[in-house]
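Example record

One chain of 120 residues, shown exactly as stored in the release files.
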Amino acid sequence: MKQNVVNRFEASDDVRTFPLGRFEVLHVGELTIGRATYEPGWRWSEHVGRALGQTSCPVEHVGMVVSGRNLVTMDDGTSFEMGPGDVFAISPGHDSEVVGDEPYVSLHFVGASSYANTDD
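Predicted structure tokens for this chain:
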């Protein structure tokens, strides 16, 4: 029998914290969803990658920007900026950083289970 599920990030199944940010994880049915919240000055390679011993993010992301701005730089040097309402698909092999003085918040529908997970 199918079951209806209502959940909130305030009651996350897992919260991964790191300097200037956090990543909250919810399991909804068979889907794992993440909410990233990064403060101004946050950069993946410095605040997440350094602790994992990695220089670029190895995770694929598909999601949507809720607020703030983020600059993504791929390992080949190409870059793009994302803002509120943008829906994104980002391949593994990238760095990212908050742009401006507003916190950046995004929802992740692919990649949430393994992102910034020190248990892997």
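Notes: The longest strand covers residues 21-28.
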